[in-house]
Amino acid sequence: MSKIWFITGASSGFGKALAEAVLAKGDSAVLTARRLESLREIASGHGERALALKLDVTDAASRAAALKAGYDKFGHIDVLANIAGAGSYGALEEFSSAQIRAQMELNFFAAAELSREVLPKLRAQKSGHILNLTSIAGLVAFPGSGLYNASKFALEGFTEALHHEVKPFGIRVTLIEPGAFRTAFASSAAMKAERKIADYAPLDAGMDEYYATQNGRQMGDPVKGVQVIIDMVESDSAPVRLMLGEDAYQLWEGAVASRSHDLAKWRARGEDTAIPGAAKNPVQAL
Question: Domain Ketoreductase, which positions (predicted)?
Fold first, then answer.
């Protein structure tokens, strides 16, 4: 059966590829982004199945208005795809307080708020699927990308817990964790740290070179990536995590090995910290 999608960040990158793919397969979609003209081009030719809306995901009133318009148009939402976001680069010390908060507002708070705001209706219909786009950088931290890492690590924790909380209501929740894909991520859309500190010059130069040389040359194909996402949504059993890209899997496997090695060094001392006779905490990760 056809589905109703609500997609943020639908004017470019993964969001645009996803919007075009779901409309091409016959589903309906609320397409949202700050650039309305780009959305109208994607929506053209799809008639009543596409609704293009200007949306600033960091603004509560804008989110509420877009959700209301989507529900008024289609009656319900089957899939919320939180795709909107942006990268950032520079040494952590070089970012201003305003930049730190702006990154968290866009990459974490907006997706968390939209997820929360659709849940009453999803619980009432006892179905639905929330997709939160993070990154391999939501699992593995890189020097020069720490602020971006922080925003995506936060969304990872929020989404994994949400998955367990709403599963009893028939609602599915999935993290999408891409590696390097050929989107506008490594373009001028990325936020650069405001300050320049001489001690970080080698790190900054390396990041500048990466963003200048990798933009448009990433190995990942967004069209192929979103097809995997759609197939996953259509499947009977959706995972908590969907990783995309050979590079992402390799980085994750390396991080697991490194963390296991690191933790093992002090494990005996770390475990030997209990109060004699105290009961073990009954809380377990699922």
Answer: 3-179
